[in-house]
Each structure stands twice: as structure tokens, then as C-alpha cells.
Specification:
GO terms for molecular function: ABC-type amino acid transporter activity; ATP binding; ATP hydrolysis activity. Keywords: ATP-binding, Nucleotide-binding, Transport. The protein contains nine helices and ten strands. By secondary structure, it is α/β, with parallel strands linked by helices. The chain has a domain at 10-93 and 163-247: Rossmann fold (3-Layer(aba) Sandwich), CATH 3.40.50.300. The strands form two sheets. A six-stranded mixed β-sheet has the order 6-7-8-3-9-10, sandwiched between helices. Helix 3 runs parallel beside helix 5, helix 4 crosses helix 5 and helix 5 runs parallel beside helix 6 (175-190).
Length: 248
């Protein structure tokens, strides 16, 4: 658990986000400290993915303030944010025509200015960490879904971000592949990485989360430590959601 006295690494205050007439986020406030692991859950359309996409400026919010690592998010601070915040997507988003190694070295070479040798050394280090160094010279289509998602995690790690965002990282995977990805994420959490994970994997949440966030209709309805919110949810909406997920 992070130190309660330290300033938050991420601070969202009164954040709202619209898509035309639809309000995806409604006056959302959330603070995440360095080393904290936050799991965000909620029904489809509740604003979970929009929340994390605003943190790395993939979506621009219309109202409120988001401060990441001491920098207020705006179009002018994109370079800082993209270097600080890594993201792992539901659909992997690997370049299909590049090998695993080439997918991992592209960012460090272009964005960080690493030499080819340095970038490849870093890439192999993180492929070892996600336990697939033997897949370095394959194309994404030659890998299983679980392996592709582990490549995507390693690719984010190659940029050495301070924060990792996960947008339903296991929802596109077959059941037998989910465990191998969650195992890697558990190891990352235990290493002290600051993580915000949008997921319905409640077993993972119980194991690694410091904070659970339940969203519905663009609002944070409930927030607290997992042992508190699982045992005694304060809102009927969260209690119903938990019952549906756990008995699915």
C-alpha cells in the first residue's frame, strides 16, 4: 500500500467528458498515489474506459482538471503524459507486419532515442519478465491471444512508464489464456507499479487491488478497499453488480 502522506501521482477533480449529447463522465474525482493499484469495474457504458482514456489524453475532457505526475493534462503536455503513462488495450493493438521484437523496440528508438542495440536489450529484458523471450522473432499472428497480450504489456514496459493503464486486458481472451495474463499483472502489481485496471476479474481485484472503484452511468458510485466493498457494499447498484459477476 502506498504511503498515505505522499502527494497523488494522478489527481482528477470534477472531470466531465461528453460525446456529442451523451455525458460519459459526470464530475468525476479520483486520486491515485504512486504504487497504488486501482481496479475499476462497472456495467457496460458506465464510463470505465473513458476514465482511463482521459488519464493518458486519448480522450480530451471538457471540464475539470487532471494532473499526472505534477503536470496538468492539455494538448501542450502530450509528450510528457505519453512518456509517463503506458496503456494496455483490450485488442492488443500490435503492429501485425512487425515481429514481436520490432513492436517492442519501435517506441524506445523513436520516442526515447535509444540505439537499436539498447532498445533490443531492453525489449528482451521485458520479454523475459512476461515469460516469452522465445517469441521475439515471431509475428503477432503466430502467437496465441494470451501471448499477444503479454507482448503488449512488455511493449508498454519498454517505455518505462510510471503508470500503467489496463483497459479490460483479458476480455478478448479465451478462458485458458486469461490466467497467464493475470499472473503477469499480479507480478507487476507486486513489483510496485502504479496501475489502474478496468476489469471484471474480481479474483484479481481481491488479490492485488488497494482500491476498488465502482462506476455506473458516468459516476463513481462506490470506492474503497476491496475487503470493505466486497463484504459490505454501500450502494444497491454495486451489490447487484457484484452478485451478477460473482454468480455468472
Amino acid at each position: 500500500m502506498p504511503d498515505a502522506d505522499t502527494a497523488p501521482l494522478i489527481s482528477m477533480q470534477g472531470v466531465s467528458k461528453f460525446f456529442d449529447e451523451f455525458q460519459a463522465l459526470k464530475d468525476v474525482s479520483l486520486c491515485v498515489k504512486e504504487g497504488e493499484r486501482v481496479v475499476v469495474c462497472g456495467p457496460s457504458g458506465s464510463g470505465k474506459s473513458t476514465l482511463i482514456r482521459c488519464i493518458n489524453r486519448l480522450e480530451a475532457h471538457e471540464a475539470g482538471d487532471i494532473v499526472v505526475d505534477g503536470v496538468t493534462l492539455s494538448d501542450k503536455t502530450l509528450d510528457h503524459i505519453r512518456g509517463t503513462v503506458g496503456m494496455v488495450f483490450q485488442q492488443f493493438n500490435l503492429f501485425p507486419h512487425l515481429t514481436v521484437l520490432e513492436n517492442l523496440t519501435l517506441g524506445p528508438r523513436r520516442a526515447l532515442g535509444l540505439s537499436e542495440e539498447e532498445a533490443e536489450a531492453r525489449a528482451m529484458l521485458y520479454l523475459e519478465r512476461v515469460r516469452i523471450p522465445d517469441q521475439a522473432n515471431k509475428l503477432p499472428r503466430q502467437l496465441s491471444g494470451g501471448q499477444q497480450q503479454r507482448v503488449a504489456i512488455a511493449r508498454s514496459l519498454c517505455m518505462e512508464p510510471r503508470i500503467l493503464l489496463f483497459d479490460e486486458p483479458t476480455s478478448a481472451l479465451d478462458p485458458e489464456m486469461i490466467a497467464e495474463v493475470l499472473d503477469v499483472m499480479v507480478e507487476l502489481a507486486r513489483s510496485g507499479m502504479t496501475m489502474i485496471v478496468v476489469t471484471h476479474e474480481m479474483g484479481f481485484a481481491r488479490k492485488v487491488a488497494d482500491t476498488m472503484v465502482f462506476m455506473d452511468k458516468g459516476e463513481i458510485v462506490e470506492i474503497g478497499p476491496p475487503e470493505q466493498v466486497f463484504k459490505a457494499p454501500k450502494s444497491a447498484r454495486f451489490a447487484t453488480f457484484l452478485n451478477q459477476i460473482l454468480n455468472h
